[in-house]
Design brief:
This protein has 14 helices and seven strands. The protein is an alpha/beta fold. The chain has a single domain, classed as Vaccinia Virus protein VP39 (Rossmann fold, 3-Layer(aba) Sandwich). The longest helix is centred in the first third of the chain and has 23 residues. The radius of gyration is 19 Å and the shape is globular.
Length: 311
């Protein structure tokens, strides 16, 4: 009986403690430095890597086959975005800029499967260090610490620019778009995916939705969200965007990721337990935000935007 009580009480206690930590210790955006610090911490404790593998982004679940492995879905997402955006038309050796590369998961796929020469940038020094550790010496990937709003590359340096789930951390979406398109050569490909809100000016949020959005911004260091169409218009009005900008909402393909990201802790308990007791609290601490994300994306308050255009 005592064991049974403990088995029920301890998880509840952990959740309550983590909820208090979640509520009090928000990760509010104040500058790019807060984004760097958050990702440094996530990378150094290795919790996300142990749970989710080398890809921190969401997965792609075909509508007729959603019951696939979470990590496989993440790899599939990369291949689906490559195909949808037209990057698969580029020859081997093409120069690719991966903005917000994380620990290099997507960069390594782009290099390994498509033969691209990939430069990955992130604002997190810890991510760059880990990306270099995980990358085999023969793979054409290099990683640098760099601010996406101030890229240190010449105009037209890349045949394609790739960015997945990085834009929500950018305080100025226009500069983010300008820098990507500036470094893209004429005729090059832009492939981008990001978290967006619905059009809040056209469909104002309710009081509850405002609370949800506030938490989504403050828990994962986001300065602001904009709609898919709004960012699409930013790309369209850029002088370097010669081709037609196309954007879609991939909510239906990516939404299963949210529950899977929690279930991974059950599927792979050793990933958490081997990191020590604090990792348990840290992992549970993220659950409220993940559940809010799941709710917001299912209800259409948030949307998963994908974008493609030619330079």
């Amino acid at each position: 009986m005592f064991v049974l009580i403990l088995s029920i009480f301890i998880p509840i206690l952990c959740f309550v403690v983590s909820f208090i930590i979640w509520s009090v210790n928000a990760r509010k955006y104040s500058s790019s430095g807060t984004v760097a610090s958050a990702y440094d911490a996530w990378t150094q404790d290795k919790l996300l890597e142990r749970l989710w593998g080398e890809h921190i982004h969401l997965g792609f679940y075909p509508l007729d086959k959603k019951n696939i492995d979470f990590r496989e879905a993440k790899v599939k997402f990369v291949h689906e975005l490559v195909k949808w955006s037209g990057l698969d038309k580029l020859p081997k050796g093409s120069r690719i800029l991966d903005i917000g590369c994380g620990i290099g998961g997507s960069s390594r796929i782009l290099a390994k499967y498509y033969g691209f020469n990939v430069t990955g940038i992130t604002i997190s020094p810890a991510q760059v260090k880990r990306a270099r550790e995980l990358t085999p010496s023969g793979l054409n990937c290099n990683f640098q610490v760099m601010d996406a709003l101030d890229l240190k590359f010449e105009d037209g340096s890349f045949d394609a620019v790739w960015s997945v789930e990085a834009g929500a951390h950018m305080s100025d979406k226009k500069i983010y778009a300008d820098e990507m398109l500036r470094t893209l050569r004429p005729g090059g490909y832009l492939a981008l995916a990001d978290w967006n809100s619905r059009d809040l000016s056209k469909y104002p949020p309710s009081l509850f939705e405002k609370v949800v959005l506030k938490q989504l911004l403050e828990q994962w260091v986001h300065p602001n969200f904009i709609s898919i169409k709004e960012f699409g218009n930013i790309l369209r009005t850029n002088q370097n965007s010669a081709g037609k900008v196309i954007f879609e909402n991939w909510n239906s393909y990516t939404n299963p990721s949210w529950y899977d990201s929690i279930i991974e802790g059950i599927r792979r308990p050793s990933a958490i337990l081997t990191l020590g007791p604090l990792a348990i609290i840290k992992s549970i601490r993220e659950i409220p935000t993940i559940l809010l994300m799941n709710w917001a994306f299912r209800k259409g308050l948030m949307e998963f935007g994908v974008y493609k255009c030619r330079g």
